[in-house]
Amino acid sequence: MPPPIRLKDHERDTRLIRSRMLFAALALVFLTLLLMARMYYLQVVQFEHHSTLAENNRIHVQSLPPTRGMIYDRNGLVIADNRASFSLTLTRERAGDWEQVLNSIIEILQLEPESRELFEKRIRQGRRPFEPVPVMFELSEEQIARIAVNQFRLPGVEVAASLVRYYPQKEHFAHSVGYVGRINENELKRLDPVNYSGTHHVGKTGIERFYEEQLHGQVGYEEVETNARGRVLRVLNRVEPVSGQDIYLTLDSRLQEAAELALDGRRGAIVALDPNTGEVLAMVSQPSFDPNPFVTGISFKAYGLLRDSPDQPLFNRVLRGLYPPGSTIKPMMAVAGLDAEVITPASRVFDPGFYKLPNHQHRYRNWNRYGDGWVALDLALARSNDTYFYDLAHKLGVDRIHEYMTRFGFGQRVALDMFEETAGLMPSRDWKRSRYRQPWYPGETLILGIGQGYMQATPLQLAQSTSLMASKGRWMSPHLARSVGGVQPIVDAQMPDDIVLRDKNIWRAVQQGMEDVLHGTRGTARKVGDSALYRIAGKSGTAQVVAIKQGERYNRDKVQERHRDHALFIAYAPAEKPAITVAVMVENGESGSGVAAPVAKQVLDAWLLNEEGELKSEYVTADSQLRAGGKR
């Protein structure tokens, strides 16, 4: 029997449909209320927050880097300038696949493949988010046009106009003024992130580094409205940056050029100081280099040539070159001996051509193997007699030599505003015990007395010690900045005490001996002194590069050129009223009086003589008038 047919319950279906419709209506009302509540929360409760986010998407704050201060010589000649240049920048956050963008740049500008490596290195260097990074400088008009035509292929890439550091004098002031270069990761951590926002260069060496804070200035900013692609639509607000301060140096470009010409392409260094103020008038280290490629990034090949050159053009010989001072320290040794009362100006020593310590057979040679006979202080200085100063060093002892030479600036930094200066070496008993774990031997004292052995000095230290001789012990530390922002710079450095002797006549006694070097009948540099229109006080020196065995003679033909003796000369003039001090070092020049002294004379002439070759009126003395009259 078939099952009964179930009849449709219309009332039940109606109730089910109504319940479903009610549930759907309630759900719709609930969702509507939820949406309205969310809209209220977003648009009313968090209005300020989201309006700020929207505004930040539309408005950006861009840094305005300040214009770097200019650098001039003492006469107003521009040494460090800012030159307008177009650079190619890339903002990595806006570029998307920035590596592919770099490939497109290489293709569009038809650059060498190695350029990509350099660009990538610049992009990967430490930087701040959303900061455009210059990848290429000094774009040509054709390159700018190529970028403009292909702009759609280069997201995040822009051509920006900027001021780039430029050194019109090129290699002439590279070692004193220094140069700026791209900020590296270590410098990025050290520098003020706000003030250096938008700045890509910082002082690396020289004046550029020492006075970085003053040269840099204060950053500005501007608020700009941008579109979705990051293009600037308009400027809403602008705060101008404060330019860096201009610096006038103590250097004189004409004297600098004269000093370079005097070296005549030889390796060496020249320093000229004003003994009355400490101003550095000339500072030459040869060979030199052009600093301009370092500003925008020097190529690996070009840097390798500079770095690997045997002539070391990157090496600052004035501040970092360490050389035995040789006989140039004999005037300071004489001052020490007279002040310590171990000798008098009349004290004599017999010179047979060598010196021997008591109870020792070793002979310490005089440069004149035949000897000078009985020698007093004035002749010892004029002839640069080694035997006299061996005896003086033995009487003084290493402790007193160290004390007096330190007072003359040896073994310490003497400059006020030169980061790269090295302290040199003024040896002592304690130094040798610490360095070699050995005692100090008497023979080492003798060698120290003629500026050989362990002692090492920079050309700047030689110039400063000569200034102390010229000023009779008055300390005026060498410095390169004459004014910063129109005012004299105040450098936080403690200046050493003046050298005060027991008798002021000691200075004059030694100064007379230095004058006899050039104007005495037996002076080692008499030929140079005879040609001068003014009186010069000086001292020659020859520093050994390689030692010579006992009993052997120096034979230049058997010594490699770079192993030959260094030639040194120190001088100040006019002797009656010193206005300039000069220290000259010619690497492997062999003869202080024959090579270095004429170089010093050319520098002195460039400062003291006018264009007609006559002594400038402010330097004329009774003696110079007499000498000029005799030459006529």
What does this structure look like?
This protein is α+β, with helices and mostly antiparallel strands. The protein folds into 2 domains: 61-249, Alpha-Beta Complex (Penicillin-binding protein 2a (Domain 2)); 253-300 and 317-631, Beta-lactamase, CATH 3.40.710.10. The strands form 6 sheets. Strands 2, 3, 4, 5, 10 and 17 form a 6-stranded mixed beta sheet that branches. A 5-stranded antiparallel beta sheet has the order 12-11-20-19-18, with helices on both faces.
Number of strands: 20
Low-confidence stretches: none
What is the fold named in CATH at topology level of the largest domain? Beta-lactamase
**How would a crystallographer describe the biggest sheet?**
6 strands, mixed
* CATH superfamily (homologous) name of the largest domain: DD-peptidase/beta-lactamase superfamily
Top CATH class of the largest domain: Alpha Beta
Helices, by number, come to 24
> Which percent range fits the helix content?
25-40%
- Count of the domains: 2
Look at the structure and give the mean pLDDT.
87
Structural category = alpha+beta
Distance between the termini: 160 Å
* Gyration radius from CA atoms, angstroms: 37 Å
State which percent range the strand residues make up: 15-25%
Taken from the alpha-carbon principal axes, the silhouette is elongated
